[in-house]
Amino acid sequence: IKKITTHQLHAMKARSEKISMLTAYDYSMAKLVDAAGIDVILVGDSASNVMAGHETTLPITLDQMIYHATSVVKAVERALVVVDIPFGSYQGNSSEALRSAIRIMKESGGHAVKMEGGAEIKESIVRILSAGIPVMGHLGLTPQSIYKFGTYSVRAKEEEEAEKLIADAKLLEECGCFSIVLEKIPAKLAKRVAEEVSIPIIGIGAGPDVDGQVLVLHDLLGITTEFKPRFLRHYAKLDTVITDAISQYVSDVKEVNFPNQDEMY
Ligand code: KIV
Ligand code: NA
Description:
The chain is α/β, with parallel strands linked by helices. The chain folds into 2 domains: 6-234, TIM Barrel (Alpha-Beta Barrel); 237-265, no CATH class. The longest helix is centred in the middle third of the chain and has 17 residues, at 159-175. α2 packs across α4 (62-75) and α4 packs parallel to α5 (94-108). It has 11 helices and 8 strands. Strands 1-2-3-4-5-6-7-8 form an 8-stranded parallel β-barrel, surrounded by 7 helices. It has helices at 6-14, 27-35, 47-50, 62-75, 94-108, 122-130, 146-149, 159-175, 187-196, 217-220, 238-254, and strands at residues 19-23, 40-43, 80-84, 112-116, 135-140, 179-183, 201-204, 212-215. Residues 23, 42, 44-46, 84, 181, 183, 204, 214, 216 line the site of 3-methyl-2-oxobutanoic acid. This is 3-methyl-2-oxobutanoate hydroxymethyltransferase.
């Protein structure tokens, strides 16, 4: 199997082939996601919500991200594995940022890191890139800053924030980031960014005119059903598939329908 590289993602944008990206946090799911032909697997800090049940992405630790990433990397044969650097392990201190990125690369075997923000974290990005670690940017709704924003609503609807986002995207490209995630911004703005930078722009809630799409795996599969923003499409309703199977098992156990003659020694 030919492994996906950051260079191939760049070539995909150049030939207008859309890039598919999904999150995964564990070995078993990552194996299925990779086998299904995804281009990029993100070990997102959304693990904080989806795996650990926290309300925000802020509590997840670097050690916990490395644990998730290690499990994912073991399962993946083809996809590029990108790992989120979690809140508190890169902001405002480029030495700490570099140390965190190196720990992720060394201990998990991931292929790249992702960081939220533009000009504010430029020094950290440059330092990590200088160490030979590919960096994916993340602009727009950056969930690690949720307490600054106050809501999870659409970002960059106003001129000033839109102009800063465009400037940040260009800055990330100049620094050498291989790609940028744009989260929950107007489709028109995302289209403009995708046109004005040459690195692949991956959207989530950013419309169709970008170079690829990313979703949280458990949202797409319909496992997490309380979360249903407009941009999310449920490709399955696994919540009922799973609970139906388990309640069937429960009643079979109660009624001694399981195990049967063929299911014992
Ligand atoms: O953590 C995550 O899942 C993400 C994606 C939504 C882009 O950062
Ligand atoms: Na994230």
